[in-house]
Specification:
Layout lengths: L2 H19 L14 H14 L3 E5 L1 H13 L15 H7 L3 E7 L4 H4 L2 H18 L4 E3 L3 H9 L3 E3 L1 E4 L9 H8 L2 E5 L24 H13 L2 E3 L5 H10 L5 E5 L14 H10 L2 E4 L3 H4 L1 H21 L6 H13 L6 H15 L4 E3 L20 H10 L4 H26 L1
Parallel strand pairs: 1-2, 2-5, 3-4, 5-6, 6-7, 8-9, 9-10
Length: 419
């Protein structure tokens, strides 16, 4: 069936469902009062009708781990895989534009080769549409995503996780823009030449470095979104002070639920980001969602390390993996889809529905994904939970893509002015 016919059918189905369940004419629909199976249908229909953008999916590094650097091939993500992302799962979940994370491990800051490694991952992403042209397409603008959506293609915009590949050459900012990078996470797990990292304790720059100030200005000039996930609070506030365009957090959650975890964003930073016009994309990882889950995962790691040592096992042994899976279930280490909705609620209550989006970190947070959101087929579960909580379809559409598009388009406008 032609994609446009499918889309029309989806819209007709949603309209029919709403009409059949609605109260008298002109009264607002209370989705929380609908039968569960009907709400499931509506959530699935919304997921298929709206563009869904995800701020951070780590498919490129997953494919690299599977041998890209040796074979120069791509993993066959046209079929079901054991990973969080592939084409069938994305279609079931309604995912249309996952930002491909060009993740650069911090070790490249010490060994060198960060730019080469970034280029290799960009090359690999670009081969996906070449290999599967009926499934994937590159996307450098919101308009590209809209065109691809109409054609039934999954867009592959790219964001670079860690500014290390810029090295010490400011011209590399424009270079990576020309290569298709549309946001740069200023640093990752260690302080780099641009910014301090929330995972580091050195506080090399007490925020953004002098070179980092030039990098942010250059990002503004060429239309690359400034991503403040992974940076320290002081660096984030520096970035907000320096930027001439709205910023994003591509995969962060609210620190209110994880006291002391600087990787998540405190309320004052969320408020400042909203004043800047930016958007926080909520990370789905259980350890980002609650202190309770973080504590359980810490204990699990310790217990499982001891179990392997006592039994002479490696992490790949089937005996160990079976034990680890059972341990996680019995000790209820995973959060659930409701907790992700709690984070969205918190941001909305704090600053409004215009400043929150999805930033799952699929294929990047390992086995810590919450119940009900284990892979990219599960976005309807989160949409269903938001409907239960009183979010309107218009609200959900903003969260799915409109908020991200608003920031992205503004960044483009600022770049045109600066150029």
């Amino acid at each position: 069936m032609d994609f446009l016919i499918k889309k029309l059918f989806s819209i007709i189905l949603l309209t029919a469902l709403v009409i059949s369940c609605s109260a008298p004419k002109k009264e607002a629909i209370n989705y929380s009062e609908l039968p569960d199976d009907r709400l499931t249908q509506i959530a699935d229909s919304l997921a298929k009708s709206f563009i869904i953008v995800d701020g951070h999916v780590d498919l490129p590094f997953r494919m690299n781990v599977k041998g890209f650097m040796i074979t120069k091939t791509v993993e066959d993500v046209s079929v079901e895989t054991t990973g969080n992302f592939d084409f069938p799962k994305a279609k079931r979940g309604g995912l249309d534009a996952p930002f491909m994370s060009i993740y650069i491990p911090a070790r490249y800051q010490e060994t060198g080769g960060a730019k080469y490694f970034a280029d290799s991952l960009i090359d690999m992403v670009s081969r996906l549409p070449e290999t599967f042209p009926s499934m994937y397409a590159m996307a450098n603008t919101p308009a590209d995503i809209e065109v691809n959506f109409e054609q039934g293609l999954i867009s592959l915009p790219m964001g670079m996780e860690n500014g290390a590949p810029i090295e010490d050459d400011i011209n590399n900012v424009k270079y990576f823009f020309n290569r298709g990078i549309r946001y740069i996470t200023l640093t990752h797990s260690k302080d780099n030449q641009i910014s301090d990292s929330s995972y580091d304790t050195a506080y090399t720059w007490n925020g953004i470095s002098p070179f980092g100030e030039q990098v942010i200005a250059e990002m503004n000039k060429w239309g690359i979104m400034v991503d403040i996930s992974h940076v320290t609070d002081s660096a984030a506030f520096d970035a907000l002070r320096l930027t001439k365009a709205p910023v994003i957090a591509s995969h962060s959650s609210a620190r209110k639920f994880t006291p002391g975890f600087e990787r998540n964003m405190p309320d004052e930073l969320i408020k400042a980001m909203a004043e800047n016009g930016g958007v926080i994309h909520i990370n789905f990882g259980s350890t980002f969602l609650s202190k309770e889950s973080r504590d359980k995962f810490d204990k699990m790691r310790e217990d499982l390390t001891n179990y392997r040592a006592e039994n002479g096992l490696t992490s790949d042994d089937s005996v160990y993996t079976s034990y680890a899976n059972q341990y996680a279930i019995e000790n209820d280490v995973y959060e659930d889809v409701q907790k992700v909705a709690d984070h969205i609620d918190h941001v909305v209550n704090l600053v409004g529905v215009e400043y929150v989006a999805f930033g799952s970190d699929y294929d990047g947070v390992g086995d810590s994904l919450p119940k009900g959101l284990k892979d990219v087929s599960a976005y309807p579960n989160l949409i269903k939970e938001l409907l239960k909580r009183g979010y309107s379809p218009e609200d959900i559409e903003k969260i799915c893509y409109k908020n991200t598009f608003r920031v992205w388009k503004k960044v483009q406008e600022v770049a045109q002015e600066l150029q």
